[in-house]
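Q: I have two molecules that I believe assemble together. Could you output structure tokens for the complex as a whole instead of separate predictions?
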Amino acid sequence: MKVRLLDLAHARSGDKGDTANVGVIALKTEWYPLIARELTRDRVARHFEGMLTGGVDRFELPNLHALNFLLHGALDGGGTLSLKTDAQGKVYSTAMLRMVLDVPDAEAKQLGLPAAP
Amino acid sequence: MTDKIVRVASGQGFWGDSLEAPRQQVEGGPVDYLMLDYLAEVTMSILQKQKERDPKMGYARDFVGAIESVLPAIVERNVRVIANAGGVNPVACAEAVRAAAAKQGQALRIGVVTGDNLLDRLDTLLEQGHTLANMETGEPLSTVRDRVLSANAYIGSTPIVEALSRGAQVVITGRSTDTALTMAPLRYEFGWGEHAWDQLAAGIVAGHILECGAQCSGGNCLYDWRSIPDLANVGYPIAEARADGTFVVTKHPKTGGRVSVPSVSEQLVYEMGDPHQYITPDVIADFTTIQVKQVGDDRVLVSGIKGAPPTDKLKVSVAYKAGYKAVGTLVYSWPEAYDKAQCANQILRERLDRLGLRFEQVLTEYVGVSATHGPLSGSDGQQAPEVQLRIGVRDNNKAAVERFTREIAPLVLNGPPSVTGFAGGRPKVEEIVAYWPALVDKSVVQTHVEVIA
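A: Yes, here they are, computed for all two components at once.
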């Protein structure tokens, strides 16, 4: 079943130099393991393909049911150098939430996940 | 004494934040400390430029107004104020605050923290072998030395604690870390030792939650955002801390916004690097140990925080001149708005080429189609009622950037049709002041505290 990350998590993003950080927080505690399993470093790097000049780092915060991603080279130099509208990476959070996950039907049903429209 | 609670209120998340928040925090209910964060990465360089023009400037002038707005309440209620408003001139800031208070017949004890400013010592430090290499690129500072505008070490809680212990009611610092402004009063009040890693880390986490003002109490909160009440009257956050390092994040009654596990969690992950190592001058906090729990309406308990000894380095923020930039925009309307905007972009780039202009960077965005989410937006733009073409250039050659700004307006008459939104005139050429993060040995930075009355 197709499930939107938007329906599973909320997020906030910010910047540090030319790196954007995206914190992804599960909307329900029981959804965190699924999110942690699906949002691998590679999956996130593929999601942002063409938008980063560097790699992706991934950290787990099970205490907050959250993951933190560092997207390197996301901000056209970052800070005052950047020519981007989103020079400080404020809405990389919602860009992350555009991800659509493929979840086995049985698991999706068991976890009560909403299907993507 | 174990039941002692210390309340630190956040009244400013950055220079430019609400002018009303400091007064609302002092008058809206019981607080012991008012914490005001004014400094962002590039603020120091702006202040340095102001100081060069006038040696009495170089600090966040909003802070003087903030103090005026909370007098006499802070004296009557014995609320102490801690702010990094001093920028590159904490002494002048203190003098301006003293004068403003005196006008209201108040004599404030003001603590001034200095020693973070390394600008005058840069060459000596470089000669002594401190490379101040860029933490991101590894380049030594010598590559941009002649373009440096300001250089400040991020200093920790110790000098603020000293100022408080010497009776300062207002403490003014330069480039203190944002988090130290909250941690220092807790360390002072509870007498946490310099090796009380867990408690110090808790103070840092409280500081991280509070340092962006209302961004933890309902502002910019994605979680269930429509349901957050009365943001027009949003309450700024307060940390109610205990000696054991636990604290409750809350806000004054009868204010809008919301303090919830989601609102606090969003702020916890904001601008986070490696959560295991949130490095500060005083302690390294482990964000993977933080427990958050709703314990009442607009009350979130934060506990369980672990800390570890800090490194022997301080982060240094260097600002340097890095060329020029300009950004121009035009709005194209339906029908085929996106196609027209793309056509205008091609024409503009061809004209820049014909003029022989080369830039380090030329960036085009289509606001309304893909400016913020790029290809992820999934929009083909075909049905867009209007699209804003936004094109920017960056280069060391000011004349080239200047010439670029003259090529936008002509498109209104000599480019694709249905164009509007150019009333703002020619784009402005901006000098870029860039940020150079580096590390320096702690031993080279000596802070100094002066208390004036």
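A: One point stands out. Residues 33 and 91 of chain A are 24 Å apart (CA to CA).
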